[in-house]
Amino acid sequence: MSIYRNVQAIIEDIRALQPKQEVKILAATKYADEAVIRELYQAGIRIIGENRVDELLKKQEILKDLDLSWHFIGSLQSRKVKRVINRIDALHSLDRLKLADLIEKYRETPLDVFVQVNVSGEPTKHGLSVDEVLPFVQHLASYQKIRVIGLMTMAPFTDDETRIRQTFQTLRALQERVQALSIPNCPCQELSMGMSNDYKIAIEEGATIIRIGSKLFQ
Ligand SMILES: *Cc1c(COP(=O)(O)O)cnc(C)c1O
């Protein structure tokens, strides 16, 4: 395993696709320990995505000498909000009003959030349905501590490239509808989509931040 080479391969893939948008790489580190994250840093990675509160807090403490951005990418339980919400730079998984209310209550400065959308409608996936997103972001306009910087989705678990692509296209179309509302504190210029198996498709469909796990560590 060469983390450096894996990161380089992804950077090369991005370059080859010649996207119009800037594409950032988030390293999903649920299976990575401290030493591996240091290697990621050496390879140029600056955004770390964790999906468990305790892991994030622990790794952040050990790695506080590095100038990393810490993003929370997993489902965030209400009872853990207070503990983690002032320790992160972005949240990719805002999926319910209750969570928004807790962020409003506990966060000290405005937080960059992605609204998570369950585009494919799979019952096992978190996220709002496509129809719920516009009323949801309109409601968030009055929240001082929430800045909707984008939308996030996970592609369906399938090899069917057409279905994966359609999922990303739907998220992008939804982003345009959100932007058309011109809501204050809701620039919604980012799309968090694409993982190890589908990031090239996601970039072609407008992803600005890809969340890569297994491909970095293979
Ligand atoms: C683990 C994880 C990823 C990365 O998945 P890979 O398929 O390993 O690249 C992306 N997003 C979320 C929310 C994750 O939990």
Structure explained in plain terms:
It is a single chain. Strand 4 (90-94), helix 5 (97-106) and strand 5 form a beta-alpha-beta unit. The radius of gyration is 17 Å and the shape is globular. An 8-stranded parallel sheet has the order 7-6-5-4-3-2-1-8. The protein has helices at 3-17, 34-42, 53-62, 81-84, 97-106, 130-140, 161-180, 199-204, 214-217, and strands at residues 24-28, 47-50, 69-72, 90-94, 111-116, 146-152, 190-192, 209-212. The mean pLDDT is 97. The protein is of the alpha/beta class and 218 residues long. It binds pyridoxal-5'-phosphate (PLP). Pyridoxal-5'-phosphate binds at residues 28, 30, 51, 73-74, 195-197, 211-215.
Secondary structure elements and pairings:
Blueprint: H1 3-17, E1 24-28, H2 34-42, E2 47-50, H3 53-62, E3 69-72, H4 81-84, E4 90-94, H5 97-106, E5 111-116, H6 130-140, E6 146-152, H7 161-180, E7 190-192, H8 199-204, E8 209-212, H9 214-217
Parallel strand pairs: 1-2, 1-8, 2-3, 3-4, 4-5, 5-6, 6-7
Bound molecules: pyridoxal-5'-phosphate.
Q: What spatial form do the alpha-carbon principal axes imply?
A: globular
Distinct ligands: pyridoxal-5'-phosphate
Number of strands: 8
Gyration radius (Cα, Å) is 17 Å
State the order of secondary-structure elements, H for helix, E for strand. Answer: HEHEHEHEHEHEHEHEH
**Tally of individual helices:** 9
The helix-and-strand class reads alpha/beta
Distance between the termini: 6 Å
If you average the pLDDT, what whole number results?
97
Strand portion: 15-25%
Strand order of the largest sheet: 7-6-5-4-3-2-1-8
Largest sheet, in brief, is: 8 strands, parallel
Roughly what percent helix? 40-55%
Regions with little confidence, pLDDT below 50 for 5+ residues: none
